[in-house]
Design goal:
The complex is a heterodimer. Chain A is an all-beta fold. Chain A is built from no helices and eleven strands. Classes of the chains: A mainly beta, B mainly beta.
Amino acid sequence: EPEVTQTPSHQVTQMGQEVILRCVPISNHLYFYWYRQILGQKVEFLVSFYNNEISEKSEIFDDQFSVERPDGSNFTLKIRSTKLEDSAMYFCASTRRGAPPYEQYFGPGTRLTVT
Amino acid sequence: AQKITQTQPGMFVQEKEAVTLDCTYDTSDPSYGLFWYKQPSSGEMIFLIYQGSYDQQNATEGRYSLNFQKARKSANLVISASQLGDSAMYFCAMREEARNQFYFGTGTSLTVIP
């Protein structure tokens, strides 16, 4: 069964460094999402992406964040200058189409630890 | 105001019994979708069930059913015949048709007791 993959599974970085989190959505999916989940807390929407552009972003998704689909398969989240509070699990998700049931397939997540 | 509210931080249920996990939502969009996801201790997010705001019948998927009460803005998840493998965190979520954005609740931790 096709699945969303994410790399790396765990990233440790120093405060102020740039990180790039990578995702490979399911191949025939058109809508892509990034979420974060601080340990033990709820899943928070960061950004949605369709047709090579951002369709929605939350207030969390400030100028330090950017997303890109550099080729036909990868979907990346970049954090330019990491802060301690960016430590969280980051999930990528994709959906096949923009119609119900909007079933999202989530990747296994990347645990980001900022020290 | 919170878009999704889950008021039960933790729930316990006896194996083979049914359990209801509560979810209320807030939106002014007439068209929206409601979702439930399961997050086991391993961390992955697993889609369980979807209910559209215009769906006349409550959604069902195997042992999962969604008790949709539109006037009360509630979308409770009912798990019948609980199994030990149902022990996990459960998140309610909503997507408003006008926006390609999903809102999640704070989750309910379900523990199934043998």
